Each structure stands twice: as structure tokens, then as C-alpha cells.
Amino acid sequence: MAQHLPVMKTVVLALVLLGYASAQDECNPRQFEYDSVVCVCDASGCDQPGIINFPEEGSFTVVTSSRDGLRFNVETFPVSSEVSSGAVVVTLNRQDTFQTMIGFGGAFTDATGLNLLTLPSEAQDLVLRAYFAPEGIGYNLCRIPIAGSDCSTRPYSYDDVEGDVDLEHWSLTDEDYNYKIPLILKAKELSQQEIKLFGSPWSPPSWMKTNGMFNGSGTLLTEMWQPWSNYIVKFVEAYEAEGAELWGLTPQNEPLSGFQDWGWNTCGWTAEDMRDWLKTTLGPTLEAAGMRRLKMMVDDFNRDTLPDYVQPVVQMLEDPECAQYIDGTAVHWYSDRYVGPDVLDQTQALDPDKFLLYTEACQGYDVEGSLSVMLGSWARAEEYAHFVTQAVNHHSTGWVDWNMALDTLGGPNWANNFLDAPIIVNAEAGEFYKQPMFYALGHFSKFVLPGAERITSSTTQTTLESVAFNDPSGRGVVVLLNTGDGGIDVSVDDGSGSYLNYNMPAKSIQTILY
Fold it and tell me: Which of the residues 175, 360, 431, 465 is marked catalytic?
């Protein structure tokens, strides 16, 4: 694949300039044609942030990643008794609490597993450690495509035998046994926290649909509502028999895409049909199988569908028969650039007891005339940090990214829907690249633990964005994004009479622990 890589600049990045010590677990930086570096890893080693604990009382820790090459740089400072003169003030209210966080993570796609298997076994282990081990960025919430998606090498289901309504030929595939389940089990072994898994179907078997295709424009045949519900139960049973216990489900990935001539696996559902299927068939079928314990999240599409798609489904006063089976709303990121966050607030207000969760996002999907993969793009990392901050400030309980690893083209992808990812695998060189996006997500996933409560935060400068939390331990966590081209003096005020004063570099993301 080397011929597809962007042309690498001849760049010497002085380790002293970047503040790196000579150690195997520090970033091995390489610059391509974009505005920051990737960290290069191979079988011999990979940078890991390590265990970063809360500091002693009377001090605070700042963890920084920046366009100029810092990656989880750790500094500790004493607290101050007054605001730093001229500083941008970040004001917190630790008594004003909102949603409880569920977690952060990515998806165990076929493409992720296939790419990992192209690496030497030691490098495979390092990828999984980077995501799931305590010394990595602590992913704890992961999505599993139920059968194939566009990020597969082929369209497929678990029962491609025409007319098999009794699902006698239903079975998991080589993709599950080779690319998904082994990685899930290894991740569970590496993690010191519970990994919550949820499944999402892209398409039923083609013979269950009105158009007889995995993609295109088509819906589920009405007479297939029960067989399709049984199919989903079989998926849960099969994965749990392999040791991959499920935490949740979404009933359909991007349900309104199935009313277009969609290029990859899909199935169309109107909100009204989704409501009726959930309350008459899927919900009761899951309950009869003892699976009502699973968190059911509806919509699973972009926020331009909110709150309209969700309202007929989740609002208890409108349809309690359906709402009893719903726990939350799943949201995708792809229209966030164009639709304001107020629709998240409106959706949350429909039923405050149900949670919001971002369940899919990726960069590179809308690139025209250039490669989807942009090695070393700080702009993409910054955009991610901005929208994660915004989503969480508007009730999202977490963020689940899409592919955890892709090749240098942004695949494989049977529909040629090539994408970017936090880790890019160069199989020919036997190495992988940790993108700036990896660290941007890590500033949340490593430090904002399940059970943390979001609190009110605000800043006095528009180029500085903030989101803050009460950690389950009782300590404080703040994530800041400086989108400006210059460094700024920051002073964090939580109303306690003590202040956190320090300088924040240009174009940087920080997590503060105090």
C-alpha cells in the first residue's frame, strides 16, 4: 500500500524541542503533508500515556496534546489563591450537575480486525493496549455491527438462504470468528473496567427486504418483522456464548437512509413503523428471551433527524407501549457541522429519564478529490474535540467512534466509502500510525470515567472551549480546547477560593485533573 501514502516531508523533529525524553513509550513522531505529526508504532514498541493519577491536594495536573507535537504531555502545578492577571477564566459550578457519563470508545468492525491481523502479533497487541489497557486511553464502550456493514469486504448476513424464515441456516461468519470476537475478548482481558458492548444491524438478509438487496432503497417486509426480531435475539445469544456479553442494542443503523438509493447496507424505517415494530414484535421478543436488560437506543442517525424521528418512539405520554422498551437515543455525528446542538436539548426534554449517546463518528467521509486518510491532521483532531465537547455539553453521555483501525486508503470498504480513523495501519511496513484524532479522543476517554457527572462550565474567550465533570472519586476533571493560533494564560475557578493558573499552548487540547 506504500504507493498510496501521502508524500512524506523530510522533517527532523528535535526531541528536545518537543519536550520528549528518550524512552520507548514516548511518541516516535513522523510528519507527512499535514499540519501535525503521527506517532509511529511497530512490533518493537509504541508510545503509551501510562497511568496518570489525580495529584495530591493543593496541586493540579495538566495533560496536553498540541498541533506542535505534544502528546499527553504531563505537568503538575500548585494551586493559587487568586486569579492570574489577564488570564482567560474558566468558571465551574460543581453543584450544578447534569447527565451521568456512560463512556467512550469505538467499533469492532470487520475492517478494524482485518487491518490488525495484517500486523505482527506484537504490534496487534500494542494497538489493543493503546485503546483498552490502563496505560492506554481506556475505551470502555464499543459497538458491534450485526453482520456486515460498508466497512466489510463483502455484503453479507447471518442467513443468506432465501426464505429461511425459521432461521435454520443462521450462523455467525468467519468475520465474527476472525475479526471481531477475538479482539473483543482480548480487549476485555486488557481492560480494568467493564467494556459495554452494543450491537447495531445495517441490513437484514436481502430476502427479507422489499427490494431484495442489502443496499439501495428498501424496507423490511411486514411478514419479516418476527423472523428479523428472532435473528437479532440469535445474534445476542451467539455473541454471549462466545464470552462477549452485550450491554445494548440499536434496532437499525441510520434507518432513514433506506429510503434513498443508498450505496451500502441499509434498511428503511419510518418513525411510525419503528415504533410499531418495537412495541409489537422486537420489544416483546427480547423480553421473552430474557433480554430486556439490554439498553435499547433508537434513531442511530444524524442529529438532523432530531427530535422528529424520536418523538413518536420515546415520548411516554404519546405511546407508553413503545416507550417502555426504549432506554435512550443514539446519535451520529455527520450533520453536526450544519445542525445546531439545540435539537439534542429538545430530544432530551421529550423524556429526561432516557439518555443520549453518540454512537458513530468518523472523519474522511466527505472528502472530494483527495485521500480520505490525512496522516497527521490536527484540524481533524480539533474538530473532533470541538464536537465531543459540544455534544457532552448538550446531554450526550459519551461518544463512540467508528473504525478503530483502517489501512492507508481508509478501508477495506466493499462500497468504496473510504474513511479516516484514529489508527492507520501500514501493513507493508509492519507499522501503524496514531493520528492526532487518537489523542483528541483520549483526552476524554482516559479521564472522563463512567459515572462521572457533567457540571456547568464557561469561558471568557470564544477560542477556548470547555467541558467539566465531577469524577466518581469526588475530584474534578476539565477538558479544554484552544482553537487559537496563540498560547493563552488560563485560570480555572471552581468557586472553592483556589485557582488553577497556567499557560495553554496554541492549538491544543488539555485535560486538567484536580
Answer: 360
Which residues are within 8 A (CB) of 9 and not within 5 positions of it... i.e. 6 or more apart?
31, 32, 33
Cα–Cα distance between 323 and 287 in angstroms, integer? 14
Tens digit of each residue's pLDDT (9 = 90 or more) over 423-451: 999 999 999 999 999 999 999 999 999 99
- Cα 419 from Cα 63, distance rounded (Å): 29
Q: Which uninterrupted H or E stretch holds 392?
A: helix 378-393
Closest to 404 (Cα-Cα) out of 47, 181, 34, 128: 128
CA–CA gap between residue 193 and residue 180 (Å, rounded): 19
Diameter over CA atoms, the chain: 74
Q: What is the pLDDT of residue 299?
A: 96
Which tens digits make up the pLDDT trace of 82-95?
Answer: 999 999 999 999 99
Is 254 an active-site residue?
yes
Q: Which three cell numbers stand for residue 163?
A: 426464505
Q: Name the catalytic one among 26, 175, 254, 382.
A: 254
**Which pLDDT does position 509 carry in this prediction?**
98
3-state secondary structure of 388: helix
Cell numbers at 226, concatenated: 418476527
In this predicted structure, the answer to whether residue 10 has a pLDDT above a threshold of 90 is no
Nearest Cα residue to 374 out of 23, 10, 32: 32
